Amino acid sequence: MTATAEPQTDPQHGGASMSVETVRFDPTRASIKVVGELDLATAPPLWAVLRGHLAAGRRFARLDVSGVTFLDATTLTGIARAHEDFLASRGTLVITGVRAPVARALRLTGLDETLFVGGPRGDDDDLDATDLSDRPPASR
Fold it and tell me: How many domains does the chain have?
C-alpha cells in the first residue's frame, strides 16, 4: 500500500495546493505529513490516506500539520471525524506541528480541547516533550 497522495491543486481558488505523504509506518502506527491549504476541494486525498491506514490496521497516527497554511471549517470537521474513527478503532490520531493558522482555527472552534494535539514541532516524535506554553489556559 502506498499511502501518499499526489499534490492537489484547486484552480477555482487561485491554484491552492496540498500534498499529503506518509513519512513512515509500521503494522500499527503511521506518521503523515500534510503541506499546503486544506479545504473542501483539496482535503479528500488526506481523508483517503487516513482511511487507508485505518483499513490496514494502523490505529495510531500522527498528523503533522506544520506545513499547513490554511484550513477551513470542512477540514476541521473532517479532522474531528477522523479523530473519532481512530478512537472507535481503539487508536489515536495526534495532531502535531500546530502553527499559528491551525492553532487559531482549533482554538476558535474549541477543537483544541477535543483533539489530541502534540507539540509545536512536526518532527517531534516524543509526546512528553510537548510545549504548549504559548496557549492561553483553558477556561472551565
Answer: 1
Q: Establish if 118 belongs to a structural domain.
A: yes
Task: State the pLDDT at residue 10.
Answer: 39
Which set of grid coordinates corresponds to residue 9? Answer: 491543486
Average of per-residue pLDDT values in the chain:
81
Q: Are residues 5 and 45 in contact, defined by beta-carbon separation less than 8 angstroms? A: yes
| C-alpha dihedral (30, 34, 38, 43), degrees to nearest 10 | -50
Q: Which residues form the domain of 91?
A: 17-124
Closest CA to 19 of 29, 31, 33, 30: 33
- Mean pLDDT, range 80-101, rounded to an integer: 96
Residue 53 lies in a domain: yes
Contact 111, 80 (CB under 8 A): yes
